[in-house]
Amino acid sequence: MFKVLKTDGVARRGEFHTPHGVIQSPFFMNVGTSAAIKGGISSLDLKDLKCQVELCNTYHLHVRPGDDIIYKMGGLHKFMNWDRPILTDSGGFQVFSLAKLRKIKEEGVYFNSHVDGRRIFMGPEESMRIQSHLASTIAMAFDECIENPSPYDYVKKSVDRTTRWLQRCIDEMARLNSLPETINRQQMLFAINQGGTYDDIRAEHMKTIANMNVDGVAIGGLAVGEPTDVMYRIIETVIPHAPTDKPRYLMGVGTPSNIIEAVYRGVDMFDCVMPSRNARHATVFTWNGITHVTNQCFETDSLPIDPECDCPTCRNFSRAYIRHLFKSGEMLGGRLAVQHNLYFYNTLMEKIRAAIDEGTFEEFRNHYSPLLASKLV
Q1: 85, 193, 243, 299 - which has most CB atoms within 10 Å?
Q2: Is 131 exposed, middle or buried (0-12, 13-18, 19+ CB in 10 A)?
Q3: Taking 80 as the threshold, does the pLDDT of residue 95 lie above it?
Q4: Residue 89 is a catalytic residue
Q5: Which of 8, 45, 67, 271 is catalytic?
Q6: Quick one: 2-272 is in which CATH superfamily?
Q7: Domain layout of the chain by residue ranges
Q8: Annotated binding-site residue numbers
Q9: Whole-structure pTM value
């Protein structure tokens, strides 16, 4: 299912074959939390923005409109008119980040909905059933997202429970994929590595899940406030123990520089709300750094957001016009900025793949990692 085509140092260039098409890696997944990219971007737009994979949120779709409704509509692909791969997260992160009151037990987690306060239970089997209803290409195993920092003993016990939950996810997915009424009977499952910022727990957990019957492995619980150098250290700690024949996914990351640095350390897959969230607040990424399009200096600027970009926004609209839209409170301003940022991220992944293919990724990293983190006017 996953084939490494080329390596450049630890960086990998590959192809990931899925039931909904072949994904070129490394790749970035555009985040459509509730089956839509915030900013007025449709599934049809995403194809023009070079999106290979969309990520949707299990918890949010379970709460609204309900995974049973999406199942009746034929699954997420039909519901949102998207014929390329979709990854759904397990709901674990939202349970631990949004639920003010929650109780963790061996069977799963009891918590209150952030929408209407109703009591919800979610465990490994429930998460798999919801994701099976959604019929995504890739489902994520249900895990506990540990707060950083947390006591060593608690993290160790939590990770052991997450491993037990993973086996229950594997068993339940196998059962669901055997049922004739299941929409996507080829649904894939990824495990999630946890362990906080403890190197030994992280490494042992990756060794364990690497030998379990899953289609890929993810590194979870990072990019949640720890220093960047700690995140890079954890990646370097776990990647040597990750399978070489399966995709490696760094969850919730990140900035363009973070992505380049993680690819340099052997990661294949990424997702983050940053490109769309920042764009809705007029912060845009360019090939010379980050800028804020509402700055006064753009008031009469006829150039596109980035003269080096050929996205639909940059081909058709000026900085002055986009600044005007934001200042006027027009929704179009956010949409145009989101289009640009998503296109930028997906083009960044194209450039990364090309650099690995050409054996020039080290030079690419040295040039672009600091440049794309810099701030312009």
Answers
A1: 193
A2: buried
A3: no
A4: yes
A5: 271
A6: Queuine tRNA-ribosyltransferase-like (3.20.20.105)
A7: 2-272, 279-371
A8: 89-93, 143, 194, 221, 309, 311, 314, 340
A9: 0.97
